[in-house]
Amino acid sequence: MLEKKTPYEWCLDGNMRLLELPEGNENIYMLVDLSKEEFLVYIKDTKVKTNSTPRKPEKFLEYRMYGLVPYNISSIQSGIQYGHAVVEYGQNCRGMGKLEDTYNKWASKDKTFIILNGGTTNENKDSKWYGTMQQNRDLLETAGVMFAEFREPDLNDTLTGIVFLVDERVFNRELYPDYVDMPLPWKDKRRGYKPSESELEKYETENAKNREKWVDKIGGPKNDFLRLWLRGFKLAN
Helix axis angle, 221-229 relative to 132-143, nearest 10°? Predict the structure, then answer.
């Protein structure tokens, strides 16, 4: 049988990225199965970057809803408080265009929950016991990540749930590997070689530019923040 794949899958196999989609047709790129010959016709007038992971159009990215809950509630309550916060998120993004579309896609198709141990909850910012739930909420706000929170009326309106949507460029590290610094240009020189200030400056400038391109590839500074920040959490009990 003639092998058929979507253009995106053919690009994955060939480790190649289309710099623009033919006629801007995202649905054909992601959904229509083509033979290899048909795929080559499809890209014949398109600029291609070799040795580069292909990118999905944003509307086809997989999403997961991540959430933080306090450490000292039961497993059942963790799910309940997380669920309350998800409802708040859905309500908050009504009428917000692209954000509402993304939420609806997650709710109707992706559906995955990731519930994390958020630690303590305490709203007194002047106290040394200021909650880690609140501290992490503040970090999300500073990073510009859209989130929703829930406060449990039966627990004196304590913050018990924080949720936020995360796309695959954050959690799929196989398809979107971590950035690796450029090799040091002088690593093969004699032992004890000390690069000059100009060599160091040139290396740091080029490395920073390459990392900036990588940040763009994974969706920008918000995703860069989330990739590092989420590493510090464990799943809730």
Answer: 160
